[in-house]
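tool=predict chain=A
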Amino acid sequence: MARFLNSSANKRTRRSNIGFTLIDALISLLVISVSLTALLKLHWQVTRNSLETQMHNIALNLAQQKMAELHSNAAIQYDLINTNNDSVTLSHTKLPLKFNRQWQVQDVQPMDYKLITLTITWKFRLSSRQLNLRSIVGKP
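tool=predict ok
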């Protein structure tokens, strides 16, 4: 009989330990909320870096286009390549993106070639970004 009483007392003790208490639930909720906050912050940073990388790639492509144009013009009219600037606005995105290109042409003597320095600037998140390319063009 004593054995029967002990086993029923153990069952009651085990039953009271089954399940979560309010403290367990609150701690679990805290861990989940901290984890989700960290994941959201990571997602925001990755998205921001991705946008910045896309803008940088667009700027690089525009700079390479202009440099190729200057090289092809040099092959045709070498003496007419001069310092100048232009701007390119891309409107196929949600917000129009404006890139300013400026190139400086310097005659290098006595080698008889021109040094082209191309600078492209744009704005991203209220700060100005810049990319520079340099190239040499020889007289044909």
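The mean pLDDT is 86. DSSP finds two helices and four strands in the chain.
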